[in-house]
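Example 3.2
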Amino acid sequence: MRSKKVNFQCSFDVIGRQSSHSWNCFFDITDEISTNLILHTNNQTINNPSNLDLIRYKIVPVSGILQNKNKSYIHTKVEFIKMNEINSSFGNVITDICYTDDGGRYKAYIPSGVYNIDIFINNQKITKHNINISSKLKYEYYFTVNGMILDKYKDMVKFCGTDYKMIYGQLVDNKNTPIENAEIIILDNNGLCVYRKTDNDGKYSFAIKNGKYKVKIRAKDSPVKMNDIEIDDTHGFGEQLISNSNLFSKKQMIYL
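Structure, written as tokens:
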């Protein structure tokens, strides 16, 4: 289909008490929808990566299988506690929490370091001490999108011609101080969708599609906080985080 463009001129008269002013405005109307999807990963940006194999760009989690001889431990809770990061309020900081799948495999998104790993089997805790973990969580991984805005609601912006929507927000502590360099990790059934850090003002932005996700947020000296949410066309991202969890403050901003 060929593009159609229409030019028209608008005149506005503004009359004040002492003088009057007039402006002429010109608009282009087109049926072309130009939307730009951008992948941010490994300190580079890739425009419209739809034809790329995104698996090669995704961050690989720390993973393994919990088993004893021929028995795999399924749906088992595993906590990763990074050493040398002790907070007076929380003690050792829990960096990540995950559960094994039907095959006993766990996946965690944690930075490199030395960890104690707590494994909870049959209401008993087994601790593996001082495990040195080398991680590939060394750079951010997220999408942004720009183009013709279709709708705005809550903390989200929808665009024409794409299923991705932009999410904007800010993380602050209980004193309303912005939290710099906090990590936002968003997962679906296929793995990592978003790994984003807040800026100097605690602000974050990324693009995501509608769907069900697990969100993990952590900051320095604060244990990881998690919630399961469903992105849709009605509820905002921040609203979803605080709706079914007592881990986040019932405020406009998200507290850690």
